[in-house]
């Protein structure tokens, strides 16, 4: 099993196998799982199993259907994604998906339609899909992948059986990375990446821990000086994009905890000296105001990619000496 799926997916997979064996699969499954859990691998293996000509609870890996999946040319497998990264899934794409759902299988088996990320569907697209989910075609399996349930229409959620990935323990993540990547990771990196194993792996493989340390260092120097040299902080944030802003949001949250006398459950549990120093040098009112302002800024930048990020980030940093 370890070669097919990630170890933290085994429990869900065993439950899905029981549904397959007992012919109890719902027509639509909603996987409400963050990207860093490896949800694609789970759903791909699910597709491999349902489309395999042996029609068992595991794909054989040798039949013609399995060969077509491996080559990326299976006529009954359709992944629906935004045509442009970061954009929406259009109503035209969902109408095409509905058309595929009504077609006959090329191998007298299931037809698989996977929508990822489902929260990227426009309202019109979601409503078009809803009509098909309300009267599902025979032998057509829908799988919706979403990071959050809250961004999907309640009517869509009600037509799907929802599955969520339980929180993955630090011990499981640590052991997996040690065995598969020979990586030794610390607890802070796991918390910083929200207990998402693939995000933790990327954090080390892409040397993001170096960028994280640089950002904290540049930020500390910037906000504690009367001159407030923003250049290094802004340059680092532009490179890291929202991830860097998320790290700063976590840092400000930890500083607020320290100012309130809370000395446990910090995300930056290995940066106590930095947190202590900033908690003493910056007023609690300013930290709170800047924390709220930063989260508002993150939302604005995510909703409106065309905004002048450099200008907005510089203005936010100058507020630390503007009190």
UniProtKB/TrEMBL annotation:
Named from the GO MF annotations, one term is: DNA-directed DNA polymerase activity
GO biological process per UniProt: DNA-templated DNA replication
Protein name listed in UniProt: DNA polymerase III subunit delta'
UniProt keyword RNA-binding present: no
* Domain called DNA polymerase III delta subunit C-terminal: residue spans: 222-320
Q: Name one GO cellular component term.
A: DNA polymerase III complex
EC code: 2.7.7.7
Its ancestry begins with: Bacteria, Pseudomonadati, Pseudomonadota, Gammaproteobacteria, Vibrionales
Q: Which reaction does it catalyse?
A: DNA(n) + a 2'-deoxyribonucleoside 5'-triphosphate = DNA(n+1) + diphosphate
> What's the top EC group for this one?
transferase
User: Is the keyword Ubl conjugation assigned to this protein?
Assistant: no
Q: Keywords of this protein's UniProt record, alphabetized? A: DNA replication, DNA-directed DNA polymerase, Nucleotidyltransferase, Transferase
